[in-house]
Give the backbone structure.
Amino acid sequence: MPILITNIKELLQIRESGITKLSGAEMAQLPLINNAWLHLDGDIIKGFGTMDTCPTLPNAQLIDATGKTVLPAWCDSHTHIVYAGNREQEFVDRINGLSYEEIANRGGGILNSAKKLNETTEDDLFAQSKLRLEEVMQQGTGAVEIKSGYGLTVDGELKMLRVIKRLREAYPIAIKATFLGAHAFPKEFKEDHSGYIDLIVNEMLPAIAEEKLADYIDAFCETGYFSVAETERIMDAGKKYGLRAKIHVNQFTAIDGIAACVKHDALSVDHLEIVTDEDIEALKNSNTMPVALPTCSFFISIPYTPARKMLDAGLPLALATDFNPGTTPSGNMNLVVATACIKMKMTPEEAINAATLNGAYAMRLSNSHGSITVGKSASIIITKPLTSYYQLPYAFGSNLIDTVIIEGQII
Ligand code: NIG
Ligand code: FE
């Protein structure tokens, strides 16, 4: 049934079609209409305007949004929602003084999650993961990228990607899948990096391509993980199968990985807690979207991405959760937006742009998601009554969401 939402106090993020990403300067503006209506027809936005032009639609379900804000559903371009078990013990170990690196060196971290994942059946993994997907949909996420990377074996990586495919089939939310076989070196390949990359290139990638299980390819380009040269080999291999790169880079150290990603026309570079002037120069005038993950910085107490410096240099920026068991056990985009404002000094307008349209770009979904545009996906958030949208980041601990609609379905 069509849906007509009336008396919307603020309808946010109105954009012409064809705008696929926003630069730092453009992100300062968040176009809106006060006292608006919005018509959703099936899974698309059919029309909107001010209340004096509101159509009469006898067959539509009416939603009165008096006092409420409506905005596009969040576009979370970086998650690891599919995982087995959790890492609560490492959380407590960190409280007691160990660092993320020390825990990883003891066999914890990614290898700990990989062990659990390989001991978990596909059905169990699906059952655990779907609860998290349902939770983030309730929290207003309408498009999401999900990575593999806790298998680190042919079977484990395929299992994860098959679960992502099942999630896509079971839920209305748009899902993009990213193959992250290059997340860490398994113990048996610690001294044989090229052996593990051979396994990724010669066995994992062909099997994944055969089943059409991935849209993108990722690697953890970091000191102690995948070097820049190793990451380039992964990006080259992905390209042969039409998988564009979305790369974990500059989380702990800057090793010139960003320039290499730009050279390979990566769709996004993600984390960026440590950013040099050279990194900023490399990103200028590129097609590569920088993605910040502020709740990861919050959870493991590392620096925040220098968003101000990047935006003031004119770069675009997207925000995502990084939902994963080790560094960000939260998929709450509302908290990401608030943290970006509070800790990274992004304005509410910049943060909302980063979490909607630019997030959609980082999944190649900005032709269909991320703004209120006729013909785009009917995926929106209706808030509780707000004094203004500033309340979204301001009242950071409150649940301000009243209703979430994804692809025309009330969640
Ligand atoms: O994005 N940095 C690499 N990967 C994940 C964390 C993985 C883990 O600790 O399980 C991240 O933060
Ligand atoms: Fe990540």
Remarks:
- Residues 109-110, 113, 220, 248, 251, 296, 322, 324-327 surround N-(iminomethyl)-L-glutamic acid (ligand 1) (CB under 6 Å).
- DSSP finds 15 helices and 16 strands in the chain.
